[in-house]
Write a structure and sequence with these properties.
Elements: E1 13-18, E2 21-22, H1 25-32, E3 37-40, H2 47-63, E4 68-77, H3 81-88, H4 94-100, H5 103-106, H6 111-124, E5 128-132, H7 135-144, H8 151-156, H9 165-175, H10 184-209, E6 215-220, H11 231-238, E7 244-251, E8 264-268
Parallel strand pairs: 3-6, 3-7, 4-5, 4-6, 7-8
Antiparallel strand pairs: 1-2, 1-8
């Protein structure tokens, strides 16, 4: 039964912590019930991370009762929403969705790792939200900044909070930029692109979540997006009454991302790395080390 997802069903998990203290999968699952938005991170190429995400989502499906539940994905961009809706309604299958979204170019990591989540939504008729910003938008901002956008495009942007000091510290740490100095303008453009990325996903999540009472949303995104100063805090800013939480999934032995607070950390046994994708989903935001952003 999906109603009872326990640690023995997740052999990949080696440790769970909550606010730095030892915890368990059972405690994590119990905490989820009280939250309207749950952001679950990942390192994109790690199969064990995807299995943990699936178990969490299956538990949410089983426990939803009369609650409206949806899945939001960083891996899908807003212009792809129509194809995703067609998949959930059964008008196209997984292979056709892969083709319709140009998955290999648009995202690139193995579709098979995400398909069980999508198939669960198809089976139960649960909405899937294509949360990510169009690639062309974040790429343009990374190259030229907001000043390089047309007035029409600038007006279409979500509200951008660019002064969050904790998030700025996080970004400088993972990207290896020094705030100030000769690289400052270039770094600021990259930072604005990252914030646009997070704010677009937060706006889509917050809009759906406040559309009606008794709604719950699980967001799947890289660990670099799934923490309190990234998507989660930006959802809270838009929906102050919404309880939102974040979960990072890390390989055993990996250090948490600097300046990236999450309520829970789940550690899994390292798995063989899946084949690298042909190119990064945002070539302007390549970190110095793997972090699932």
């Amino acid at each position: 039964s999906l109603a009872c997802v326990r640690a023995p069903q997740l052999p990949d998990v080696v440790a769970v912590t909550n606010e730095g203290k030892a915890s368990s999968i059972e405690q994590l699952l119990a905490s989820i019930d009280d939250h309207g938005v749950v952001c679950v991170g990942e390192q994109h190429d790690q199969a064990s991370h995807h299995r943990v995400q699936l178990a969490i989502f299956q538990r949410m499906v089983a426990a939803r009762k009369h609650r409206k539940l949806a899945l939001g994905l960083e891996m899908l961009r807003r212009p792809q929403q129509g194809a995703v809706d067609d998949y959930v309604r059964g008008h196209i299958d997984g292979r056709q969705l892969h083709h319709a979204t140009d998955w290999r170019t648009s995202w690139g990591f193995d579709f098979a790792m995400y398909e069980p989540l999508l198939a669960t939504c198809h089976r139960y008729g649960l909405p899937v939200l294509a949360l990510n910003a169009p690639r062309s938008l974040t790429r343009a901002i990374g190259r030229r900044g907001l000043a390089g956008l047309s007035p029409l495009v600038r007006r279409s942007l979500p509200e951008l909070e660019l002064r969050d000091e904790e998030h700025r510290k996080f970004f400088w740490a993972i990207m290896g930029f020094r705030e100030g100095g000769h690289a400052s303008a270039r770094a600021e453009n990259f930072y604005t692109a990252q914030v646009t990325w997070d704010e677009t996903m937060a706006e889509g999540a917050a809009s759906w979540q406040r559309g009606a009472q008794n709604r719950q949303l699980m967001i799947v995104a890289g660990n670099g997006h799934c923490h309190s100063s990234a998507i989660v805090g930006r959802v809270r800013r838009r929906n102050p009454d919404t309880r939102a939480m974040s979960i990072a999934i890390l390989d055993e032995g990996d250090e948490p991302l600097p300046h990236a607070h999450t309520e829970f950390i789940v550690r899994t046994k390292p798995q063989p790395v899946a084949p690298k994708k042909a190119r990064p989903h945002n070539p302007h935001l390549k970190p110095r080390r793997r972090h699932g952003s």
